[in-house]
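Bug report (template v2)

What were you trying to do?
Predict the complex of my protein with NDP.

What happened?
Run completed; filing so the output is reviewed.

Input:
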Amino acid sequence: MLQNRRSFLRTATAGVGATLLGRRPASAAARSLGKTVGFAIAGLGSLSMNQLLPALRRTGIARLAGVVTGTPGKGRRVVDEYGIPPDAVYSYDTMHRMADNADIDAVYVVTPNVLHLEHAVAAARAGKHVLCEKPMAGSSDDCETMIRECGDAGVKLAIGYRCQFEPHHRECIRIVRDGDFGPLKLVEAGLGFTIGDPAQWRLRRDLAGGGALMDVGVYAVQTCRYLTGEEPVRITATEAKTDPVKFAEVDETVAWHMEFPSGAVGSCTCSYNAQGLNRLAGHCAGGGFTLDPAYSYGGLQGGSSHGRFDFDQPDQFAVQMDDFARCILEDRESIVPGDEGLRDLRVLEAIYESIRAGRPVDLK
Ligand code: NDP
């Protein structure tokens, strides 16, 4: 099947009422207390319009309370379709006014990567908790600033790593943690698609911070880190560029190895010019597991040496937003806090450094 960026991630529409780690998520408990958490979605692009806003109709305790947009017509559309008050539509310049809107508890930042910092800081300074899309920011310095600003404002910060809430990925993590097949030796992870419109921000360094690596390679880095439970100590990377005009500012296809202290190795690929790459495999001493597709919004398939997986296909975004809502209500840290985004950015920067230097790069 020919897939574009949207369809390759969507693969299948997700079911509702999902479970996370076998528990009922949306908090029957919190709901019975009558508590909900209001989210403002900042940036009404493809992800927000096609996934997040619909997901907020399926959540248990997270609910839509506002939007931030630079395009007034989109704001009016959300008012009409989702019934939010017209005065809950903000522009990027008026985000500080959210401080006066007690109905908004959290802002979900869904703008181009390099703008995440500015919008997350504006939300934090307005006293709102921040859920920030991946990659967390355009650089690890920006991640550190975001973490500091959220800390100073006393608000929570989490990153939109939806896979960590997805049952197939949770099972892969469990298999490794419980040692079902012995120690994890090798992770293969790859995500790629053929990018369209040459004028889009994803191909601009000033807005994207990088190319395929920043956008989809970050999933592979995350996967290797959450499967091993370790931080990489050495990276070896190369880039292939077959279209130097389209990819003048950003990377096209990147392949890299990550070496972990235990001896486990991550072998990863990502591309803006290779259709249908969407796979994860973990090889342990005595068996392993595979997901293919691995990173879609739904329709994941796979299994382990013990047999095929048969899990619910939750709306990953609904589960993720409900979890962040619970973190706010219960005053606890997300399993994907800002520090996770920062650690991934440090790895991405080491990958770029290895490409530039043409040699392995050691991480402290
Ligand atoms: P889009 O290009 O579809 O939307 C981005 C939106 O950001 C725009 O529609 C616009 O909304 C707003 N925006 C503000 N400033 C600018 C600017 N200077 N240039 C362009 N847009 C601007 O991107 P996506 O929705 O696909 O991606 C947004 C973020 O979400 C990215 O960080 C991406 O990595 C992440 N993402 C995460 C996914 C996941 O599975 N977790 C999947 C897809 C994306 P408005 O008109 O309302 O201002």
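What did the reviewer find?
The chain has two domains: 5-162, 167-312+339-362. Residues 9, 43-48, 69-71, 74, 110-113, 115, 133-134, 160, 162, 201, 207, 215 surround NDP (CB under 6 Å).
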